[in-house]
Write a structure and sequence with these properties.
- It is a single chain.
- The chain is of the alpha/beta class.
- The chain folds into 2 domains: about 75-330, Aspartate Aminotransferase, domain 2; about 335-460, Alpha-Beta Complex (Aspartate Aminotransferase, domain 1).
- About 40% of the residues lie in helices and about 10% in strands.
- It contains 16 helices and 13 strands.
- It has helices spanning about 45-55, 75-85, 85-90, 100-120, 130-145, 165-175, 190-195, 220-230, 250, 285, 320-355, 375-380, 385-395, 425-440, 445-450, 460-465, and strands at about 120-125, 155-160, 175-180, 200-205, 230-235, 255-260, 280, 295, 300-305, 360, 370-375, 400-405, 410-415.
- The strands form 3 sheets. The chain has a 7-stranded mixed beta sheet, with helices on both faces. A 4-stranded antiparallel beta sheet has the order 10-11-13-12. A two-stranded antiparallel ribbon has the order 8-9.
- Helix 6 links the parallel strand 2 and strand 3.
- Helix 11 (about 320-355) crosses helix 14 (about 425-440).
- The radius of gyration is 25 Å and the shape is globular.
Length: about 475
């Protein structure tokens, strides 16, 4: 029930005193023609309403959240404490530079740390999310080619296993997208890549490890092929959690990279933000970075790169998210960063090994941070789909893995357990998945009805898609 449906005429939360100053209203043409639709409820009503909704929400603090390629890891509370410090929280972006030197030092230090982790030369924090980072990185590639008068480069190569935002971002920048198929081992098909590159190639967008949870062993050959064709290599950092501190995108041959601070570096993820998708690049692209880069002179100052593409967001990005990520890096230290990656890979391989006798794996291990199951055979034998297994998990209080992605795997379930989950949690989830497989074999109809014990049971998703109710009718 909506808050609007719980009210009673005339009920309110507070009683304001009579106005003791002259009332000054806008001109008649600027006034509303009818009263605003506000719920008429008491403070008690509204408090209970949102408390009830909060109890029905599910996040990383509630339980296991294995969304593949999303790295929904636990957010340490010390991150929140640091971001709440008055010297960080109670500032304004228009303050004089000399009054926010500590905040500027955070941006500069974070840039240096993340450049070291990625093998890049410079880093901007303006982009507010991963896809925004993709868009910004591609603008850098475009500015580079245009600065050389190389306007014939109009195509971006994207593997068929890529995140959906990759071709969308390339299209937004004005590029044509060339999709190339994966090889049998799940990596980029080198022969198809060689056919695709040419004088019109602006660049390649690639995630490594890819969305199948596999590290492409031909990565140096892949980036070399693109470079020899005159293109640049873009690294989608969505899966950096598997390799941070172990191997650097810059050393793989990538020229530009975006990161997800709200994935890899333990800042809040989802709920509408704020996110952060900083973009790093090699020296050849640094002159095109968005404005307001922190430089160290006599103290810290903001400067615009020589041929900046301009602002991609107001001011300096979501600053407090950078503070959270910096706290995470300070807490882990140089030894802890690769340790986190090792445990992420260990957890994924442990789950995969414990499930591969009952679920078909799309690709045999070892995997990296995530693995993909194909339930095509299970559906053929029992009628139970990946959707049914995902819905069944909800009855056990477990958030499902990513469903039906990557698109190249039929009936896909893609799970990423992350390094912050204990063996006890993984064992519980493994036991539940094995139990659901047994139910599929013996009583499949039960799973067709799942979930049964959740606040909202199985929805008519076809009806919801074709006849959505997007607003309340007063």
């Amino acid at each position: 029930m909506l808050i609007f449906e719980k009210g009673q005429e005339g009920r309110m939360m507070t009683i304001l005193p009579e106005c003791d100053v002259p009332v000054s209203l806008p001109e008649e043409g600027s006034l509303r023609k009818k009263s605003m639709h506000l719920p008429q409820v008491s403070e008690n009503d509204i408090s209970r309403h949102y408390t009830e909704i909060a109890k029905k929400a599910y996040g990383v603090n509630d339980g296991f959240y294995p969304l593949g390629s999303c790295t929904m890891k636990y957010n340490p509370k010390i991150n929140e404490d640091t971001a709440a410090l008055p010297g960080f929280k109670q500032i304004h972006p228009l303050q004089p530079e000399h009054t926010v030197q500590g905040c500027m030092e955070v941006l500069k230090t974070a840039e240096q740390y993340l450049c070291e982790i990625t093998g890049m030369s410079r880093m901007t924090f303006q982009p507010a999310a991963g896809a925004h980072g993709e868009f910004t990185g591609l603008l850098l590639i475009k500015a580079y080619h245009e600065s050389r008068g190389d306007n014939k480069r109009t195509k971006i190569i994207v593997p068929d296993s890529a995140h959906g935002t990759n071709p969308a971002s390339a299209t937004m920048v004005g590029y044509s997208v060339i999709s190339i198929p994966s090889a049998e081992d799940g990596g980029v098909d080198l022969e198809e890549l060689k056919k695709a590159v040419g004088e019109d190639t602006a660049g390649l967008m690639l995630t490594n490890p890819n969305t199948l949870g596999l590290f492409d062993r031909n990565i140096l050959e892949i980036t070399k092929i693109v470079h020899e064709a005159g293109g640049l290599n873009y690294y989608d950092g969505a899966n950096l959690n598997a390799v941070m501190g172990m191997i650097r995108p810059g050393d793989m041959g990538f020229d530009v990279v975006h990161l997800n601070l709200h994935k890899t570096f333990s800042t809040p993820h989802g709920g509408g933000g704020p996110g952060s998708g900083p973009v790093g690049c090699k020296d050849l692209l640094a002159e095109f970075l968005p404005g307001s880069m922190v430089e160290e002179e006599e103290g810290y100052v903001f400067k615009h790169p020589a041929h900046t593409i301009g602002q991609v967001k107001s001011f300096y990005g979501n600053f407090l998210i950078v503070v959270r990520a910096m706290t995470y890096l300070f807490m882990l230290g140089k030894e802890g960063v690769p340790e986190a990656s090792k445990h992420a890979v260990l957890n994924a391989n442990y789950m995969m090994a414990q499930l591969k006798d009952v679920y078909d794996m799309a690709y045999q291990g070892p995997c990296m941070h995530e693995f993909v199951m194909s339930l095509a055979r299970l559906k053929k034998e029992t009628g139970v789909s990946a959707m049914d297994i995902a819905k069944g998990l909800l009855d056990y209080g477990i958030h499902p893995p990513t469903m039906y992605f990557p698109l190249i795997v039929p009936e896909a379930l893609m799970a990423e357990p992350t390094e912050t989950e204990s063996k006890e949690t993984l064992d519980k989830v493994i036991a539940v998945l094995r139990s659901l497989h047994e139910t599929a074999m013996t009583n499949p109809e039960t799973l067709h009805q799942a979930p049964i014990h959740t606040p909202v049971t199985r929805l008519d998703e076809v009806r919801a898609a074709r006849n959505p109710k997007l607003k309340h009718e007063f």
